[in-house]
What we know:
Shape: flat
Largest sheet: 6 strands, antiparallel, barrel
Amino acid sequence: MALAQAxxxxxxxxxxxxxxxxxxxxxxxxxxxxxxxxxxxxxxDDASEEPDGLLLDVTGCERVWKGEGRLATAVAQGLxxxxxxxxxxxxxxxxxxxxxxxxxxxxxCIIEPGGxxxxxxxxxxxxxxxADDAVRHLDEVGxxxxxxxxxxxxxxxxxxxxxxxxxxxxxALGQAIxxxxxxxxxxxxxxERIFDGPTDRVEAIELTVRDLLGELCAELQRRCCGARRIExxxxxxDLGPEPLSITLGRPSRDEKHLFTLARPKLERAHLGxxxxxxxxxxxxxxxxxHEQAEALAVGRGVAPSEAERACDGLLDxxxxxxxxxxxxxxxxxxxxxxxxxxVMQSTEQGQSDPAVGGGSPMDRPxxxxxxxxxxxxxxxxxxxxxxxxxxxxxxxxxxxxxTSCVGPERIAGEWWRAAIGAEDRVRDCFAVxxxxxxxxxxxxRIGHDAGHGRWFVHGVWA
Length: 462
């Protein structure tokens, strides 16, 4: 249907997202990899051009979950925790559970062995995964249920409705073999070194970790990816394993950089009476784009990629020494108010895209004061232009002549918010230039309260 027609069906404006079939397939493949916690054989359902299901071979897995009912409940709850609404069916064949999960009247259903015929008899013929032409031909002769189709002579079905119909019927009844292509997930790359005997020499352990990181980086390069989180395990002779870990903002396979992050933690590790083995594992990995090894220098001979890597290395060092939650950066928010146009978040979440930040298109000062500074202003008219200004930041009692004035720009509060604060009041903003060359952002409050007409300096252009 048209987008306008779809919007008209809702009382409130719905959220509209662009259709991304490639992204949907990638997400479904990741979901299949996630579902391998229930069974080692999990595949995407490729029966349609727009797959929206998973096929899991749970033969024998019900013993681990103490029954098929508990297994179905665990799958539904796991998908629910990820934000998905799902329908689950367990039965003797993939064709049977495909039909029951999509056209059955229960969100979770268990079909006992030998009960496939009764389970699909009352379902529509679309549950057999037939082509659209076959479904249309069946509808023309008044056949809408699978049970009605099963009552027809078997030898007449291929001639009237196509060769595919018998295969789909046999697959749903469990009388034909149907195979799936499981999603193969590579285990995280891991390296291990076992010593001849326990050692408490920090130099030997550091050298071993460096060698293992070199082997790990070589494996990551073979997989065309980099590490986002690396876990170390020091197997001690008298105590339990000593776990250590480092996190990175971007995927990396730079052996020198990784060892620089790991070395301070190795120096503080408790070795007990000696370490018998060292294990290194890349718990979280990410793809690394191929880029040109040499690029034209910019500025002082530093290529953009090299500058980015240097900044990422600094952030990684700060995060691993100070803590992930203590290294923050400003990210854009969808608000026209300057106080709410950004939020401080962890650098691990990455930089926000300015194109989708949703801020104001107007120029804003590079330094925004947390609390506006009161100022005394002489204006030719209440709506400007500003003639002279005196404020605490520019010297108490010292007036500055204004050589340029841009404005006013009226900013109103966010009316959709329940709580109305000081930043939600209507105000007029001016960008003014003093005779000394400094640019100030002046704000004049507007309203019916006691603060009406008062002037403040809200920021400066540094």
